[in-house]
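Sample 3 of the quickstart, ligand nicotinamide-adenine-dinucleotide:
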Amino acid sequence: MSTPIIIDGKEVAAQVRERLKTEIAELKAQGHTPGLAVVLVGEDPASQVYVGSKVKACTELGLYSQKWELPASATQDELVQLIHRLNADDRIHGILVQSPPPPHIDEEAVILNIDPRKDVDGFHPVNVAKLVLEDESGFVPCTPLGCMELLKAHGLETAGKHAVVIGRSMIVGKPMAHLLVSKKANATVTIAHSRTKDLPALCRTADILVAAVGRPEMVTADYIKPGAVVLDVGINRIDDATRPRGYRIVGDVDYTSAAPVCSAITPVPGGVGPMTIAMLMANTVKACRQLTASR
Ligand code: NAD
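Result:
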């Protein structure tokens, strides 16, 4: 039992924003203001909060932003038409459609319509391919990108380490695994999922354990090799009558039991979460740089 490094995502996100300020100033001096369009379909309250935070982050950094709120009744065609308009709008360098859209919208088909050069979420197949090909002109989903930034900021070595990523989603698990196995990070990676056998035993072989499952506090101390680095991506609401809202947010890792076993760990909230929007800003600035250089 020792005291782990508590990886402070708010602090690292602030460092990312500081770095971006210099780059934004340079782009503005050349007459280019990075611009992000955020599109929300429907009135899901959690999505409204996320969209609001993304627009606020743009304003704070001096980026141009557009917020499009379409009614839940909007058709797939109307959404696609809007995306085509945004693809053609020179003020917009990044386009994001807030997930999940209402059930009648085919999200994958919508994403195919986003110009890959403006796909700052990194969901378009062109960007998925670029991640696998290690072509750095592509866009990587913001949450795994933020996880890598946290490791880098704390000087946590990945080369030669065994990383286990729990979760195989296209938003977190798979891109995280690709980043870790890339020639830049050089980890040896295992992806675990709902059908993995004896998950605790597999996780105990991990020097770096990334939990992206969506199950509150599933990863307990017996999943963790002493001295491992643990990144908890999970954001789960659990009932808590002692809180004013009646719930609290916990990760996929049981922090209280896990923290004494690891060498470094991200808390929830305040770990991976704050990095996601910071990396969205970074992707938007990158899109602006690449698009304006090619004009
Ligand atoms: P998802 O539901 O798409 O994928 C979950 C993955 O976990 C699946 O691949 C599934 O196979 C695996 N899984 C489910 N049950 C399992 C089990 N018992 N054992 C092993 N694997 C199991 O979820 P997602 O979109 O990847 O998100 C995962 C978590 O991360 C959620 O809590 C989500 O809220 C959170 N998240 C956080 C951020 C952030 O900004 N911090 C961003 C995206 C997602």
